[in-house]
What does this fold into?
Amino acid sequence: MPELPYLFAKEPVRPADANVLASRLKAVVSPTRMEILSILSGRPGLIAEDFVVILDLAQPTIAHHMHILREAGLVSAVRVGRCTRYTVDRDALRALSDAIRPAGAR
It folds into this structure.
C-alpha cells in the first residue's frame, strides 16, 4: 500500500488515499478497537479467546470488532486449527499515525 500523505498538508489528500485514511480512522474511533490495537501492537499475535479474557467481552463482540479492524487493513487473521490468530499490521498502523501526525512532530 502506498504511504499516506499527512492529513492536514498544504496539498489536498488524493481521493484514493482519503478513502483508505477515512476507513482506518473510522475503525479506530471505538475505544474497544483502540484497546485491541494497543494490546496487539505489543505482542506477536493473539487468538480471539485471549481478547475475550483480557477485555471481558463476549466472543461475538470481539469478532465484530476484529472484522472492522480487518476490513480497514489494520489487523490480519490466520486460522490456526479451530482458532483465529490476529496480528497488527504495523505498516498500516504506522501509515495512519504518520498521516495524522502534525508536520512539526515528525
